[in-house]
Design goal:
Elements: H1 8-22, E1 35-39, H2 51-69, E2 73-77, E3 79-80, H3 84-97, H4 102-105, H5 107-121, H6 124-132, E4 142-143, H7 147-162, E5 166-176, E6 181-183, E7 188-203, E8 211-216, E9 227-230, E10 244-247, E11 252-258, E12 270-273, H8 279-287, H9 318-322, H10 329-342, E13 346-359, E14 367-376, H11 378-390, E15 395-397, H12 401-410, E16 415-416, E17 418-419, E18 429-431, E19 437-439, H13 443-454, E20 461-462, E21 466-467, H14 469-473, H15 476-479, H16 488-493, E22 496-502, H17 506-521, E23 526-532, E24 535-536, H18 553-560, H19 562-572, E25 579-580, H20 583-605, H21 622-643, H22 647-675, H23 680-700, H24 705-714, H25 737-760, E26 769-774, H26 778-786, H27 788-794, E27 797-802, E28 811-816, E29 819-824, H28 831-857, H29 859-864, H30 867-895
Parallel strand pairs: 1-2, 3-4, 9-11, 15-23, 22-23, 24-25, 26-27
Antiparallel strand pairs: 5-6, 5-14, 7-8, 7-13, 9-12, 10-11, 14-16, 17-21, 18-19, 18-20, 26-29, 28-29
Helix pairs in contact: 1-24, 11-12, 11-17, 18-19, 19-20, 19-22, 20-22, 21-22, 21-23, 21-25, 22-23, 22-27, 23-24, 28-30
The structure holds one RNA strand of 75 nucleotides.
Length: 896
RNA sequence: GGGCGCUUAGCUCAGCGGUAGAGCGCCUGUCUUACACACAGGAUGUCGCAGGUUCGAUCCCUGCAGCGCCCACCA
């Protein structure tokens, strides 16, 4: 006997182990089956499973299980990402608690710590993925820094370099002063900051008492100013162009240049130019051949080396400036402003709110810094990727995300890929003492190249920098399959079928996989990109620790089971929508899991299990035909929904069929048969009950793997194998399905109408009365007779028969099709209430009829609307009018 | 500043050219031998606003408003 309720905590680990033991998740490159590939977006090794993972992984698992059941050779490729900055940060913090500092211990020792840490806690995310039920092909698990993937990274780096698509350049980068590394544009986020706009007076050379006033939000960078720019058309400053001003404090002469970058509307229209600390100024500096002295170091502290020579007491204050050496940028700002105020060189200070770029991980303002870095020529690599989406080789779902993709790709900037970190793929570049660079697969290869170049042995030093984490992630779709080796996996599983991810990493990851995949594999990395929303709380707010609204998927699984959580996620996963997840919803959906469980208990109680030799195409009872027809439709709906990535519709279709058809009606209709005598009918009903239950388990397995697999085994389905490897259901031809549908639909409406009338009349369930049919056709009478037992049970009737003679006094009446059904309830009901009820029904029918009649009275409608629409309206009008007539008759009977 | 999306029942959302739907919540009954994580019944909407196209608009077009997001922006 099945337990009273399903116990996920006991069942889930057992089944997961069973699947793993059976090798149920394994792809088979040797099989002839058509592949279906999903590459997991590799979670950070530092990570633990959060609700966003639960969403994306549930979706992927649903897809992979479904396709696997369809007979595809499904590969869901697992793995994790080394996550450069994030991991280094975590380990550094850990070491700090032990009083250790990476700089003191050195690179090698630090990396040893990171690897140790990874060995200890790196597996937690993969253990947590198992709890979700994720059917990943674990033996194929990869790590972005394992040997094979590192080889791929070097191969790509060297190749791109040889092709001129990867190069070193000295230009401004986004510098994160906390992590002391360059970061890419994507790792920078704008934050609104309330600051000030300082208007500074720069004395005009040779014209004592005249000042050129510049407005700035960053007075501390003035030390590095090498010009002031004004707009060529700006009459206010025309006479100053070509002349010089004296940079206060520093005492350096700097030119006034005319440059269209200067906006007369902004600030004072004159803008100080600090080429080494501002992206726009850098461009201006290039155009005017300006010097580009850096005045802030890697810590964002003042450094004077590059301007020391220009310090002058004539118009400057060298002692003050020298004292700034090593001072933090914000402290320097305060001091410089204070000093300029003393010198009466501050015209005014306005409050000013503006967007300031911050490091997305460090949270501090980034500092544009002039450094030598490695860049990928993204512009060139982007072109084939853009074309691939334009031509539909890769399709985004929902489609609108293609616009986002195009917008970014068409304006893509060089990708800075070097990072001044230790944890990551060290750049395969070696420098000779003269600075000559040798990019090679190995030190030996670099040394060989150097020997050829110099004609002798030279000492090479490897570039200490590592690559952006996304550089290796970009290769994920092929590096995990063994590239650059020509493996059977690579041949079979590339390109992948679908990539599932959130819109937040379209740029970071999707775009870059497209670029690298097309360049190195000459084909897109995936045919479809399914973009889902973000998980938010039930009020639609982003989940965050500070708001305290974070939901822990593992806690939800503990509380309600993985199936309930997965089903909830699927049901909320509509197109282009964020997923607003509340704890209550998961709890509600646990009821659905329980509903399935209880249906199973009912079957068990009636001795129903997996039917042997049951042939759905040969059933004879209308009940069997009807439920099989319903199952066919559910199969079609679920399949279509999954094909369209409509997880919400898939969940809804499954729910509707199980709860609304199988449980609410089929089981109820089956009860009289099951309680009745043994025979052909009973055998068939038991058979179809078991058969359709099996269909339900198969249909729901992709989203609710555990409860379905458990019941599959308990009911003896598929003795040869687990549900996970069972075929996805397909529609079977059902004989005379239409007739069965008409018949059962009639019974359902009869029962519903009678229940409605009884309920509205407040007839207690304990009161049972005969149902007297008036005006029933022969077919209806036959149905009433055939289904009398079910009708009696469901509509609380003593009998169902033709009204013989005049109607009794005090009846409640309902109209079902051509028949008026009378319930003799003289003692129980209030006649006035019954009259009101009938009048209301008549009113509804009349409103309906009037609307349709008006439409049909419009000659334009009849002339221009489609023929079948007109015809349909005529039929509806006739039906409404007939119903009004019957209700009128019913009212007349009561009046009399 | 540029772009995208959303606005439908109290809540969360489907629908997107021809009778406004679901789940939850609410109200009324019921422990009816699978299930109270349940059963039965009921109420609830000028489908954001204003125009237009159409025989017909929640659905298509235009404008407006509100909300959300992405990109750009340190004068």
């Amino acid at each position: 006997m099945l337990d009273k309720t399903f116990d996920p905590a006991a069942v889930e680990p057992r089944l997961y182990q069973l699947w793993e033991r059976e090798g149920a998740f394994a792809a088979n490159p040797a099989s002839a089956a058509r592949p279906f590939t999903i590459m997991i977006p590799p979670p950070n090794v530092t990570g633990s499973l959060h609700i966003g993972h639960a969403l994306t992984m549930s979706v992927q698992d649903t897809l992979i299980r479904w396709r696997r059941m369809q007979g595809r050779d499904a590969l869901w490729q697992p793995g994790t990402d080394h996550a450069g900055i994030a991991t280094q940060m975590v380990v550094e913090r850990l070491l700090a608690t032990q009083g250790l500092d990476r700089r003191e211990m050195g690179r090698e020792a630090f990396l040893k710590h990171v690897w140790e840490w990874k060995a200890q806690s790196g597996g937690s995310i993969t253990r947590q993925l198992r709890r979700l039920g994720a059917s990943l092909d674990w033996p194929r698990e990869r790590f972005t820094m394992d040997e094979g993937l590192s080889k791929a990274v070097i191969q790509v780096f060297v190749t791109l370099h040889r092709e001129g698509l990867l190069y070193r350049d000295r230009r401004l980068v986004n510098w994160d002063p906390v992590f002391q590394t360059a970061i890419s544009d994507l790792e920078v986020e704008s934050r609104e900051v309330k600051g000030s706009l300082w208007h500074l007076r720069y004395p005009v050379e040779g014209e004592p008492g005249r000042f050129l006033v510049v407005a700035t939000t960053r007075p501390e960078t003035m030390l590095g100013d090498t010009a002031v720019a004004v707009h060529p058309e700006d009459d206010r400053y025309k006479d100053l162009v070509g002349r010089h001003v004296i940079l206060p404090l520093v005492g350096r002469r700097i030119p006034v240049v005319a440059d269209p970058y200067s906006d007369p509307e902004k600030g004072t229209g004159a803008v100080k130019i600090t080429p080494a600390h501002d992206f726009n100024d850098f461009e201006v500096g290039r155009r005017h051949n300006l010097a580009m002295p850096s005045v802030l170091d890697a810590d964002a502290k003042v450094i004077l080396a590059e301007i020391a020579a220009g310090l002058s007491a004539d118009g400057g204050d060298p002692d003050f400036v020298r004292a700034l050496e090593g001072v933090d940028r914000f402290e320097a700002r305060k001091r410089i402003v204070a000093r300029l105020q003393e010198l009466e060189l501050v015209e005014k200070i306005e409050p000013h709110t503006h967007a300031v770029p911050h490091g997305d991980r460090s949270g501090v303002p980034i500092e544009p810094r002039l450094t030598m870095q490695w860049y990928v020529d993204a512009k060139t690599l982007a072109q084939p990727a853009i074309r691939a989406v334009e031509t539909g080789q890769t399709v985004f779902v929902p489609r609108q995300w293609e616009n986002t993709f195009f917008a970014w790709m068409r304006d893509i900037q060089p990708w800075c890929v070097s990072r001044q970190l230790w944890w990551g793929h060290q750049i395969p570049a070696w420098y000779a003492p003269d600075g000559e660079v040798f990019v090679a697969h190995s030190e030996a290869e670099a040394a060989e190249a150097a020997r050829r170049k110099f004609g002798r042995e030279v000492t090479l030093v490897r570039d200490p920098d590592v690559l952006d984490t996304w550089f290796s992630s970009a290769l994920w779709p092929f590096s995990t399959l063994g590239w650059p080796e020509k493996t059977p996996e690579l041949a079979k599983y590339y390109p992948g079928d679908v990539l599932v991810t959130g819109f937040d990493i379209i740029f970071f990851w999707v775009a870059r996989m497209m670029m690298m995949g097309l360049h190195f594999m000459q084909d897109v990395p995936f045919r479809t990109v399914y973009i889902h929303g973000l998980v938010r709380d039930e009020k639609g707010q982003k989940m965050s620790k500070s708001k305290g609204n974070v939901m822990d998927p593992l806690e939800l699984i503990d509380a309600f089971g993985a199936d309930a959580m997965r089903f909830t996620i699927a049901s909320l996963c509509g197109p282009g929508r964020d997923v607003k997840l509340g704890r209550k919803r998961v709890e509600d959906n646990r009821a659905f899991v329980t509903k399935i469980w209880n249906a199973a208990r009912f079957l068990e109680m009636n001795g129903i299990s997996a039917p042997q030799g049951f042939d759905p195409s040969k059933v004879e009872t209308p009940l069997a035909r009807w439920i099989l027809d319903g199952a066919n439709r559910a199969i079609a709906e679920c399949t279509a929904a999954l094909e369209a990535y409509r997880f919400d519709e898939y969940a809804a279709a499954g729910y509707r069929f199980v709860w609304g058809s199988y449980c609410d009606w089929f089981i109820e209709f089956a009860k009289p048969v099951l309680n009745g005598p043994d025979g052909a009918e009973k055998t068939e009903v038991k058979g179809v009950a078991g058969h359709v239950f099996g269909t339900i388990l198969r249909l729901l397995h992709p989203v609710m793997p555990y409860v379905t697999e458990e019941l599959w085994h308990l009911f003896g389905f598929g003795p040869e194998g687990s549900l996970i490897r069972t075929a996805w259901p397909e529609a079977v031809p059902v004989p005379e399905a239409e007739a069965a549908r008409v018949e059962l639909d009639w019974v359902v409406s009869l029962v519903s109408e009678v229940r409605g009338a009884r309920s509205e009349m407040n007839v207690p369930p304990s009161v049972t009365v005969p149902l007297l049919l008036q005006g029933a056709s022969a077919a209806t009478l036959a149905r009433a007779d055939a289904w009398s037992e079910a009708i009696r049970r469901l509509a609380r009737a003593t009998e169902v028969r033709m009204l013989g003679g005049p109607p009794p006094k005090g009846v409640a009446q309902v109209v079902v099709g051509e028949t008026t059904v009378m319930l003799p309830l003289a003692d129980v009901i209030d006649l006035a209430a019954e009259r009101a009820r009938l009048a209301k029904a008549r009113g509804a029918a009349e409103t309906d009829a009037k609307k349709i009649a008006a439409k049909l009275a419009n000659p334009d409608f009849v002339a221009r609307a489609k023929e079948e629409v007109v015809e349909e309206n005529r039929e509806r009008l006739a039906a409404a009018e007939a119903e009004i007539a019957r209700l009128d008759a019913a009212l007349a009977r009561i009046a009399g």
